[in-house]
Write a structure and sequence with these properties.
Strands 1, 2, 3, 4, 5, 6, 7, 8 and 9 form a nine-stranded antiparallel beta sheet that branches. The chain has about 850 residues and is α+β, with helices and mostly antiparallel strands. The longest helix has about 70 residues. It has 26 helices and 33 strands. α2 runs antiparallel to α7 and α7 packs antiparallel against α8.
Length: about 850
């Protein structure tokens, strides 16, 4: 029995085919299963990366397009305000203004430009029905407060009236009231056009005032939002993806579905909510967002998430879009996951099926198929990860499988677009958008390389030229910023023509340029370039029919200054440039350490001056003014003095120019006037015999240009109860000559209040009495330089004599400053000069010492 069983078992043989097929089938099955799982897993990873990259790119493109599209209206409104303020545009001339607005609409891409005056008049020009152009006008004459709409020809000339709206008042519109109330440039609410097309528009509004602050009206620029919808519609957002823009209240602003954004409600139309969109994907997405966040008003930052709608997974990205003028929108991008996974899943299933069907054909074919399927996807995953790390040069090799090849081509196209976008961004980051010179950041990199090169080779010298155009602001103010920009472009070209090939030129901003001269020999080489630049800039510039002249102040710093940081070189070159300006402009100066020291001292003096004003560390000294006829004191000049806590008494010649330059002179001058008037009123109460003494106070050019100067002075006089007829304001001769029109009206207003005007330092400003006789001037003060030199300079004596005689002929009193000797005093007396001031009589004294004059009865005046 045992032998028989053993013999039976020995007959049972497992076929070799079965041994080969079963393990093979199992291995292939496992391999196919693993291949399918890995393909699906890697595909999901690729989908997530690609979806993130695609949605980020689309989001950036939408933001860039919207920003560029929406900035134009406010730029035009700002340009029009500048044109009005520069008297290039006369808003009272509706014929020219309408024609001007018509041309702006034609060339700028906006739809409507208008001005609504505060008195109800209105002028506007723009498109109607997105085709024809019209000019609208409301004026007391000739339209009689009715709105007339005129068609125009190709040159913007009015043809015929196509519409009339009686008694139309733009001031009743919500947009006008909102802009006036906001008192700044803002956006209007999105609104529907009046043409019945349902097109949405938005208006950029900007209030405009005259020189006295009175509201003239509102400048507005309108544009349709159809362009944004068209842009979204033309975007490639997967196969079924959508993008839309909405407001916080949920209303649609633009949609890639290119659907009407209004809905008919009876006889009127209303704006479409995102939840009412005719596109199912947009509608379902909006409803999901409302359910998830409760309200769009709660969204603040960029949000990226997945959502499930009707069993389908969707990728959603929400980005808040705002600007400086009140826009607060949301950009929503939604892409179905199937747009990314359908092809991958189909490829995976097809590969598995082919592998199963090809079991009997060849293992090699199965392995090859697996290789062709997995390898390209793995390469795409690696490339996508590299893209996410900022490595933009990525290319996936083409696959022989059609579907994978299409995906690879799509990926390569996306990577190429990202690389081009990055290249453009990189160029913008390192170049000036106007002149296309490199900018500050790029210049710093070049300078760092030159510094490093010199540190390794001490003979590798370089020089820096810091260039600033002289009187560039005058060009902008007189001819406009467009001509100013043209001048900057032309200047940059002339600068480049003067430079050797190894040099680098950059624009820092405004009218400032900087040049790096590498591998120079000595200072003379740098100076030659500076001279050549100065020379070519003296030639006139022909800019759009204007002949413009300019010059440049140039600061030079050499690498021999032993600076180690780029910012130190830029600072020193800047200091040298400003030194060139202070020396008369249109020249160059080479930096030395003394300039830096003076600059630091100047900065410290300004800082100390600000603290001194805040903490009240100033004191007023009073210098008596003497009458040679009565031999008595007739008045005082108030002079400010500064007792520095560490430096002691600082000369006014040091801190007054700094106060003038920084504008601190306004605050300081008000304090001096207030304190001096207060002190004089106090003395008048204590010593009645001083009630006829006058007070002279210096008035700076910045104070003279203050729009509320008269109100400030009269308020001080009321607060101190000081008689305006005893106040004399001293204005330097150069201040009046350089601001003749403004000075005339301001001084006349002061004179009408009883305040007298003195011309200080007369004779130093190269003017004449013929220039000043029509101004309300009561006193001339002869400058101390003439008083000092007339004793030994016959020319100065004759000038002094002539001034006194002419002033007497015009009924103007004369005060001689700086009288220090008896000889000067007697000579001035013989010339007929009655009033004198100087150390011969009294120096400037503190209030306490001045009061002693009253006590010692040196004043022999009666009330």
């Amino acid at each position: 029995m045992a032998t028989a069983a053993k013999r039976q078992r020995s007959r049972i043989r497992v076929p070799l085919r079965l041994i080969l097929v079963v393990p093979f089938v199992l291995q292939i099955s496992i391999a196919v299963g693993l291949t399918g799982w890995l393909s699906f897993r890697n595909g999901k990873l690729a989908v997530n990366d690609l979806a993130n990259q695609l949605m980020t790119e689309i989001d950036d493109r939408i933001i860039q397009q919207a920003s560029n599209y929406l900035k134009t209206p406010h730029e035009i409104a700002a340009l029009n305000r500048s044109a009005v303020q520069s008297n290039l545009l006369n808003l009272n001339n509706f014929e020219d203004t309408g024609h001007y607005f018509w041309h702006q609409v034609q060339i700028s891409g906006v739809d409507y430009v208008a001005f609504g005056a505060a008195n109800g008049e209105y002028i506007g020009a723009g498109y109607v029905n997105q085709k024809g152009r019209v000019i609208d006008e409301v004026s007391k004459m000739p339209t009689g407060n009715h709105l007339y709409s005129y068609t125009t020809d190709q040159q913007g000339n009015r043809n015929r009236i196509v519409q009339t709206i009686k008694n139309w008042d733009h001031r009743l519109e919500a947009g006008y009231r909102d802009i006036v109330q906001a008192n700044k440039p803002i956006w209007s609410q999105v609104y529907q056009g009046n043409d019945g097309s349902g097109t949405l528009s938005i208006s950029a509004g900007r209030p405009i005032y005259n020189a006295t602050g009175k509201l003239l009206g509102v400048l507005s620029v309108d544009l349709r939002l159809t362009t944004l919808s068209n842009f979204l519609h033309n975007l490639n957002i997967g196969q079924n993806g959508k993008a839309f823009i909405l407001e916080r209240n949920g209303f649609l602003v633009a949609s890639s579905a290119n659907e009407p954004l209004v809905v008919k409600q009876g006889e009127r139309t209303e704006r479409l909510l995102a939840t009412q969109s005719r596109d199912p994907l947009i509608q379902n997405t909006a409803k999901y967002l409302v359910n998830r966040f409760g309200s769009f008003a709660t969204l603040q930052t960029t949000t990226l998430f997945n959502m499930n709608i009707a069993g389908e997974q969707e990728f959603v990205k929400i980005t808040r879009f705002t600007d400086d003028f009140g826009l607060d929108w949301f950009i929503v991008i939604v892409v179905p996951e199937t747009d990314f996974t359908a092809q991958i899943q189909a490829n995976t299933y097809t590969t598995i099926l082919l592998c199963l069907l090809a079991l009997t054909i060849a293992i090699a074919m199965g392995l090859t198929t697996s290789h062709y399927l997995i390898y390209p996807i793995q390469r795409m995953i690696s490339a996508a990860k590299a893209l996410s790390e900022g490595k933009w040069k990525q290319q996936v090799p083409e696959s022989k499988l059609q579907e994978v090849g299409l995906l690879a081509n799509a990926f390569n196209s996306m990577a190429q677009q990202l690389q081009e976008s990055f290249s453009e961004l990189h160029y913008s980051a390192y170049h000036d958008g106007l002149t296309h010179l490199i900018n500050r950041a790029a210049f710093i990199e070049h300078l760092e390389k030159s510094i490093a090169k010199q540190q390794h080779n001490a003979e590798s010298l370089f020089g820096i030229l810091f260039l600033d155009l002289d009187s560039f602001k005058l060009v902008n103010d007189s001819l406009g910023h467009l001509i100013g920009d043209e001048l900057l472009i032309a200047v940059s070209r002339r600068i480049q023509e003067c430079l050797p090939d190894s040099a680098v030129a950059a624009r820092l901003g405004g009218d400032e340029f900087i040049i790096l001269l590498r591998d120079i020999v000595d200072l003379e080489e740098v100076a030659r370039v500076a001279k050549q630049i100065s020379k070519v800039l003296t030639h006139p510039f022909n800019l759009k029919g204007y002949e413009v002249f300019t010059s440049a102040s140039i600061g030079i710093v050499l690498s021999t200054t032993q600076q180690a940081k780029p910012e130190d070189f830029l600072r020193d070159a800047d200091i040298a440039m400003y030194h060139a300006k202070s020396q008369g402009k249109a020249r160059y100066e080479v930096f030395d350490s003394l300039m830096h020291t003076r600059s630091k001292e100047r900065l410290q003096l300004e800082t100390d001056l600000r603290h001194a004003i805040e903490k009240g560390r100033f004191e007023i000294y009073y210098q008596p003014i003497i009458s040679s006829k009565s031999h008595t004191i007739v008045g005082f000049e108030a002079l400010v003095r500064w007792h520095h806590p560490t430096r002691g008494m600082i000369s006014p010649n040091q801190f007054i120019p700094v106060a003038e330059e920084t504008g601190l002179i306004v605050q300081l001058g008000q304090w001096v006037l207030l304190e001096a008037c207060r002190q004089m009123s106090l003395w008048q109460l204590r010593y009645p015999e001083s009630c006829s003494l006058f007070l002279s106070v210096n008035l700076s050019v910045r104070q003279l240009l203050q729009p509320d100067l008269l109100e400030q002075i009269m308020q001080i006089l009321r607060d101190t109860q000081f008689d305006p007829n005893l106040l004399k304001l001293e204005v330097t001769e150069s201040t009046i000559i350089n601001n003749m029109e403004v000075a005339g009206s301001k001084l006349e207003s002061l004179r009408k209040e009883g305040i007298q005007i003195s011309i200080d330092d007369f004779g130093t400003g190269y003017s004449s009495l013929s220039q000043l006789h029509h101004l309300p001037i009561s006193i001339l003060k002869i400058d101390r330089s003439f008083v000092r030199q007339m004793m030994h300079d016959e020319g100065c004596f004759e000038i002094t004599k002539t001034v006194i005689l002419l002033a007497q002929g015009l009924g103007i009193d004369v005060i001689a400053e700086g009288v220090e000797t008896q000889e000067q005093f007697k000579k001035l007396q013989r010339l007929g000069c009655e009033f004198h001031q100087g150390y011969l009589f009294f120096p400037a004294l503190p209030a306490a010492e001045t009061e002693e004059l009253f006590c010692s009865q040196l004043l022999k005046l009666g009330c």
